Every structure is written in structure tokens, then in C-alpha cells.
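Minutes, structural biology subgroup

Action item carried over from last meeting: produce the C-alpha cell record for Sodium-dependent transporter (Jutongia huaianensis). EB confirmed the sequence was re-checked against the source entry. Recorded below for completeness.
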Amino acid sequence: MVQWVLSVFNGNNVKGAEKLKKKSSFSGQIGFVLAAAGSAVGVGNLWRFPYLVARDGGGLFLIIYLVLVLTFGFTLLTTDISIGRKTGQSAIRAYESMRPGWKKLGFLTFMVPVLIMTYYAVIGGWILKYFIVFLTGASGDAAKDSYFTSFITNTSSVWFGLIFMLVTALIVYNGVEGGIERCSKFIMPVLLIMVVCIAIFSLTLKSKGADGVVRTGLDGLKVYIIPDVSGLTVSRFLQVTLDAMSQLFFSLSVSMGIMITYGSYVKKDVDLNKSVAQIEVVDTVVAFLAGVMIIPAIYVFSGMDGMSAGPSLMFVALPKTFYAMGTAGRVIGLVFFLLAAFAALTSCISVLESITANCMEIFHTGRKKTTLVLGVIYLAATAVIALGYSLFYLEIPLPNGTTGQLLDIMDYISNSFLMPFITIFSTILVGWLVKPQWIIEEMEHPNGKFSRKQLYIVMIKFVMPVIMVILFLQSTGLLDRILSK
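Output recorded by EB:
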């Protein structure tokens, strides 16, 4: 169906599509790093990271996550970007050009953003709604316990997701340098400044609770960074590690074809060694500062009870916290949700761009017509997922022991199942079939430097295949069954 629609739009103009593809590139290293960092810095950093830290032992999660970023994250980011630039193609054809017969792995990688795109604009729409609420001075309504549930279960919530999806499609429609890079060059510096300012403000907070205890932002910082290992078991440690790895995939946009696509737009004179390090640093710093923004503030006004908010932390606990701050909190809340909207937009753009690039290669279509068709498809998908809490409500048990609605199902399949599965086979492909030197050659171009070459070889050949199999078994619930026998 999709192929027929696309062929109707441009009559299979192969030469025109190839010509357009060759013109697509980032202007240089700064443009690439900001766009890639924009993809990495998203809702995962501002929403998912803080609530996982609060749930998974504070500093314990931070330590595990940092170790994973410097090892697994570095390896996956290096691999994806190098594959993209060396092949000059998006995920499906990139894997096939590396090794004949591996197109199926490219197809699975392509399916990750396809699934994520069905719900990312929905979350972006929720953030947009809260920004409007704070902008119009109705933050008191948002602070009510039932507000978020009432909002997402109302069919009118779908319009916010549709607006977010339209903006995303418009930017991708305008291309790599004219749309994605231009947007990232504006949004990323503004986002970084806002994150730092709110984080500093959060540490200055002080409040006396109903129990008479005075709590400060610095007390909340201790809760955030000091490891909590009480009741820690092997199974619990593996689950925290899985959470951190899932967050890593989601945050760095690896094992989903996005960085392969972005890598294919990078010019040969760009230093990938330096670029990878810069993307790692920006993404990790923003994630850490997001925790500094959120955890101390919630602790000051809600105590340890606020730490158990889980996924509802951004949309339930935070509005309460901002409201409790008084006038200053309403301003901070407005700035925070603007920041979150920016972060969600840059990530949403990267997801749609990955799908667009692959479809252009598969169906030999031009960017504008491909984006128009995908825009229509994902407007429909966004509507369905948004209405999954009202008209299309259902509950399905998931292998991780939870139950989920449509959004949860898409998230589980893409993040907890497909990403670890893809990583297992991509490490086998690079580590043992095409060999690490294939990647190293691209990382050393143009200046011959790859400072973490030995670490990369050990990780891609020996460590990652084994660890990823264990984490995949954990994510599917199979590991608990094996250990219980």
C-alpha cells in the first residue's frame, strides 16, 4: 500500500531521488554534532532518566549508566555512525552492503523508528498541552492528581499530538541542512542554557513539610547521587542494568538506524572520533542535569513519597512541585515544559528522518513527497495511539510482568525487545564477520586517530555479545524462568 502511494506520487523517479540523496548532508562537524545531540537529548533525558534514577537506587543507577555510556554507548554510537558514513546509506541497505544476506537485520533496525514514531508525537503532544496550561496561568489545574488522567482519557487530547506531528513533518520536509540542522542549531544551545539555569535554581530550594522537617535542594541532591543498595539482589541488579541499557538505547538513538542515517549525511572531513565523544558528553550531561532539575525539587516539596511517582513524574509530580513553589514555580514550570517540548521535537525529528531516508532508498522517491506520505500515515498512527487511553483502550500483559496500553506495547517491542535483539546480531556482524577494523578505518579518517580503538575491539567482539544476550533474556522474562529451574 505504502509503495503504491509513493510510486503514484512521483512515478518512481529513481535518478531524481538519487540526486536528491547525494545533496543531503550536514554542513560540517558542528552541524552534525548538534543534530545528533538533538536526537540523543530528548524526552528520554528529561522524563525517563529522572524517574528511573528515583526508582532504581539513585546513585546506583547513575554509576551503572555512566559505565554503560563509556563502554556500550561508545561502542554502539561509534558503530552506527561509522556504518552510515562508510556506506553512505540508511539502515536497510547499509547492512546489506556490509555483508550480503544481512538485509533482514537492516529491516529490523528500520522497524524500531517505525514503531517509536507511532507514539513519540503523542508524548510530545502531552508536553505541548502542559506548556499551554502553564502559559495560560492554569498551573493550579495541572497540579491536581486527576488532571493528567482526565486529559489523556479525553478524546480531545489527540489534537495536541497531531499538532506536534505536523511540526515535525514540516521540519523534515525542508531537508537535512535547511530543516534538521537549522532547527538543531537554534534549539540545542537554548535547551542547554535552560537546563543549567533550572538545575541551579532547583538546588536553592527549601521547604518545611507537614511533618515539620525542613528539606533543601542539596538534601535532594544527596538522594539523587548517593547509591541505595538496600535489598539489592542479583535479579534486581540485572533489572537496574537492563533499565539503564534500555535508557541508553532510547537516549543515544542507537540500534534503531537513526545514527546510521545521520552518519550517512556526515562529510568525510569530519572527525568522527571527536564527534562521538562530544555527543556522549552532551547527552550524558543533559541527562544528569535533568535529574538535578527534577529530583531535588520533588524531594523538597513532596519528600520521598514524590520519588515513587514513576512514569507519571513529569506529568503529575512535577506540576504539583511547580505549583507549590508559588509564582516562581509557575515561571519555572513554563520554562521547563518549553525545554521539554524542544527536546521532544529534536528527537521526534530524528526518528521521522530515519524513516524518511529509508523509504527514499526503498521506494526511490524524493524527500518532499516521501515526507508528505509518511506525514499522513503518522498523523493517523498518532491519533490511534493517543486514543488508546479512551476509544481504543485495552490492557495487554507484557513479558516484563506489567500490563500495557497501545503506547506501552509499542514502547516495549521497540525498546525492550527489538533494540537488544538487533544489538546482539550487529555486534556479531561487526565483531566477527566484517571485523572491527572495518569500523576503525572509518573512525581514523581523516586524521588517523581513534583514541579508544582497543576498548572498541574488546567490547564489540567479546563483551557486548554475551551481555546483550543476558539482557535480552531478562527483558523477555526468559532469564527468570531459566534461573528458577
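Discussion: The chain has a mean pLDDT of 87.
Next step: EB to file the record with the rest of the batch.
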